[in-house]
Batch of 2 targets.
Target 1
Amino acid sequence: MKVALFIPCYVDQFYSQVGISTLELLERLGCDVDFPIRQTCCGQPMANAGFAASSKACDANFTENFKEFDYIVCPSGSCVLHIKEHLQPASDPAVARIRSNIYELTEFLVDILKVENLDASFSHKVGFHVSCHGQRGLHLSSMSELMAPTFSKPAKLLGMVKGLELATLTRKDECCGFGGTFCVTEEAVSVRMGQDRIDDHLDKGVEYITGGDMSCLMHLEGILKRQKSEVKVVHIAEILNSRN
Amino acid sequence: MDHAHASTIFNKDKARTGWHDETLWMVREKRDKAARLVPDWEKLREAASQIKSHTLSNLDEYLLEFEAKAEKNGIIVHWAADALEHNEIILSIIRANNISKVVKSKSMLTEECHMNEYLASKGIEVIDTDLGERIVQFRKEHPSHIVMPAIHLKREDVGETFHKHLGTEKGATDPQYLTEAARQHLRDKFISSELAMTGVNFAIAETGGFVVCTNEGNADMGAHLANVHIASMGIEKIIPKAEHLGVFLRLLARSATGQPITTYSSHFHKPRTKQQMHIVIVDNGRTVQLGRPDFRNSLKCIRCAACFNTCPVYRRSGGHSYHNAVAGPIGSILAPNLNMRENADLPFASTLCGSCTNVCPVKIDLHDQLWKWRQVLIKEGYGSISKKAGMNVMNTILSNPGIYNFMGKIGRGMLRAMPWIAKSKSLNPWYKQREMPNAPAQSFKTWYATNRKKS
Amino acid sequence: MSSRDKIVSAVKGNKPALIPLPLMDWQVSTENTTDTFIKTLEGIGGTLYTIADLQQVMHKVLEIHGNEKRIVNQVRLSDGKNPEEIKSESSISLENVEVAIIEGQLGVAENGAIWVPEHAMGHRALPFICQHLVIVLPIKNIVPTMHQAYGSINVSSNGFGVFIAGPSKTADIEQSLVIGAHGARSLVVFLVDK
């Protein structure tokens, strides 16, 4: 299966290991992975700041890079949601194609590749942070507000990892407070939200906090490092690809 | 003071912020518990949403039907185009009846119209009878929550306020004791009042009647003892038929506080014998919002505040940070319609997590509307010039892979060589309470080009 | 142009294309309706007694409240006493009512609410101004949900009517529940099972 890899800009710049893990994981699962080298960013930071109208050239570059692919996979729920809802112009058939062919990593593994077991092991106690856009936007898992059956695509995959102990959090899907430019424009609330999420995880004795979005994890990591915590963040792609 | 500034101040008291957050989260949990007991919950939300959407699409007919039926039943119907006209109408009724003291049960509309201040300036004392509202009235504060006006206050604060204004024991904090004091104090006011004001939860077009929901019974103690009853309503409070109340009353209290229903759901159709009953139908920007396709759904709101209780930002910044009668996510969508300049900060006071949209009993697409307001506000010129310039630069960088790669390399290079550049708490807000991410020598692209790129 | 005309024409001009009303189809189980009603009302601070004979009402009320204070009765009880005529009283003179006994028209199991139309109150203020409220309700008049309730009552046939669900309350001080705000401090319901 031919798959295009879309790597979020901040993963490209600061967390290449997440990109590497995603690539290796997809290859191990039998995909023929292409990485369009001229990709840059999905444009979400601009759009969420109110400048969706100014991102035309950025959108055009994205479309140019990905228009030929039947499957585009990205290790980020928020980037994928942004493309699905806001890639412009919506009237362009290439854009429509991309919008319907783009997948977040865990949904691609569960829904398309239909992965039932993984050759992975990660013998640690782990807390899973539910990133909002993936959950409420892409329905990667059920939402605590809705009266509907419980399910989680990421948790299903984590259940296939040998030795991994998944913690049960008190607030199952509260936002971490990153929110794009919010993390600096409303710094006080943003950090308080992140701190409260971390306290929930620390309270459960986790060694690692994982999730599907490096943006959330980068924000939590910043707080963890400032308080000199032993707890580390790790993207779910790294766990699913790990055999340590 | 904009939301970001106000919430920075709010967060200085870490313990109190935690207490405020926990208190409101508990209300969200009560809502969840109540919703779980209703097998039809999601079906109810969908029905409520559709009933409201239908109503908005036929609103003029329903308003006229309501007026005709209400008048036939002996209710005097007034129309107010804006807040000032609403206040003037209220004043004229008060003056015509030679009244100087008014009791009022909760009405966010009268808050929106700044009615209390207006009447005070004309020598009319308004006594708010909802316990939470009376507390903030004594303290000369505004309500911080549309259902629990004093939720930002601790019992010690209330005890202090009642000691000052009601003569309760100094240092008393028992809610039972304090509530009893308020009961006695307000009972006198009810008995001696000549004019009672209420809000309207739902106005029924089919019958010309309206419904007022309270737990305390203060709306009824006012209305049934006074010779004049004035109810204020926004045009969007109309519902088509009495049977629709079944849907809304099943959703309202469960969404608001986790109760199956408020203690009293009072249905008013005719004035009492020898009583004057008035209703004031208010626009105040609602018809403008109706004309905005992206934002008209906000008019479906039934003022339950479920969105406030679930909002992680509201819980950690408090209602006063929103500088409006209605705070939280719904307030952030309604306020820019009233005044874009003063409320341009509100749609940005959110991470767009989407929890609000999920708890809304009438399925308003709250977080989508917050995103859309951001686009409108920037387009209308309410973003700073430096922000706009920054975004144009970003667009250039992100549309040009060569520049992007180059800037990324330079940026990381600088952070590696001169880490102190980013480490300024005053210049770099990220750094105030968080460490910067490591700046690796190699981007993913570089790794890919070296290790994987097919030649 | 009056404000009325301005508003109505603005609505007309700005409203979206007509969206249909949804179908109101609310099937519900009628099992355990009475038990659910009792449990729910007890959970929100009400006290219930199931009786077969209306005579027990006054007997129990006197037992709880004594006969020193003013009891206003609006129900035709079987001891031959007629409901008190209080319609013509001024609301203020009801200020000293300790106990009010009124008849409820129907009860709603899902939330413990009881519909009381104006004609059962004598005076609109009575159920709210009394210190303690007593409602007499035929046990067969309990329906499962609000949908059935609205299907059975005609809200506009009286100038006023109210769903009463328990005693008055507030949680405005630190979310701490206090029973007895401005309305009645307690609610006792007699379910009459003849």
Note: Chains C and A do not touch (no CB pair under 8 Å).
Target 2
Amino acid sequence: MAEEKPEIRGKRTQIIDPTPARRKHLTEVLMDFLEDRVSLAELKGISRENLFRLADAGFTKFKHGRLDEAEKIYQGLILLDHRNAYFHAMMGAIHQKRGRPIEAIMEYGQAIKINKIDVSAYVNRGEIYLRHKNYKKAAEDFRNAILIDREGKNLWSNRARSLVIAIKRQMEADRSGGRRPIVVR
Amino acid sequence: MVNPVRPSRVQEKEVQADLAKLEMAEALRHGNVYEVMKRLPAGLTIRDFEDYMSDQWRTFKSQIMQEGSAYESEGSVHEPHYSDFPMHGEGTAMTSEEGNEFMKGMEASLGGSGGFKAMGVKAATEDEGAGAEAGSGYSELEGMAEGTLDEWQGFTDEMWNQIFDAQLVEDYEKKMGEIQKDVDRIIALAKSGQADPEYVLIALAKVNVTKNGCLMTWLGKKAFMNNAMMNRVADELRVAGTGDIGAVYDAQAKTRDGAFQQQLVMSDMQKVMQDVAGVLEQVHGIMGEINKTRSEIITKFSAR
């Protein structure tokens, strides 16, 4: 017992409730975790507010181009709560900015899987497809983004609208044999 | 169900609004804005003119420049919002010892160290091998997350303090600037014999009360911050659970510190209030003294 003590990482002393009810509850929680119904943040008791603050700090770093730091923060956040679509969308954006299209597409895909109406994930993924001349998939993503916001109020949806025009121009340019760069910035 | 085929009737209000606009445009065409405002056409108010001109401004502006961007830039995501964070389940948190047991169990069941990895998509860069050990990576990330949170908390606390101090200075300067004019005027009147000296005393008492009022507001905000800090400690304790003795001790120490801070703020408040009460009492006494002297003079004069 004495040898095991240094291995314990936690700084605090806990009382483990030995009642069978607690054991049963813990087993259920762990089963939920294994079946993807509970996140590590929930198990660790990390509150939504703290996750939000971390995400906000990461977003600020991302916005100001400090991609390394933003990536570390969002890696941690995904580890803590892998069921949050926003974290995956942000991670996708970080990969996209760092020129890793495959990782970015996978993260956007994950974000869309969790949140079917994540407009920014659809548009960003569609744009990567468009830049790699996968017009069919790009058009599909832009279509979904436009259908989510029919009123034209969402800025990402509006980007999808302008990128649809870019697809048409690019396809025409490809047909005529010339190479025309995508100019929507 | 019969659908109406006739176009809807134009309401009188809409017609009147259009006519009023014409009237305003006509009035402004012939004269200076200030003169038109002085001699308003019948049925129109200054508010109508202001609305008309702000409408015109908006129309002209929208013709020249676009307000905000029409679409987002490449690879951008909106800033985090609370709605992006689903509510956590109740009672799912484990104590840290239970967590350690769980991690050990997971590592053992997945075939030793390195089996239990992050559930996110990680960039497979050359320098970052995918075989990093989960345990060390997890503790590193946990440490980083805690560090960032502490940093953030420290920053917000400091920021609030700075904001409160700046607000105190601004509030104080603004109020004193306003009151100074009144005081100067009253002193001038008193010197020229047009106002009684009591007015000067009242004005000076007002200066003191305003000054202390600013301090009181500042102290009130400090007390509010302390209260928020205590609430945060209670929330943290709720999340950790009362079975965690370490968390309980931690919360106890923080609460003690918060209570001490709150006591200091309260004693400062008391001091400020005592100062105000003292000044008012003093003014009251001096005024009584002036009145007494005045009545004595009158009595002695009338006795002669």
Note: The CA atoms of residues 95 and 184 of chain A lie 20 Å apart.
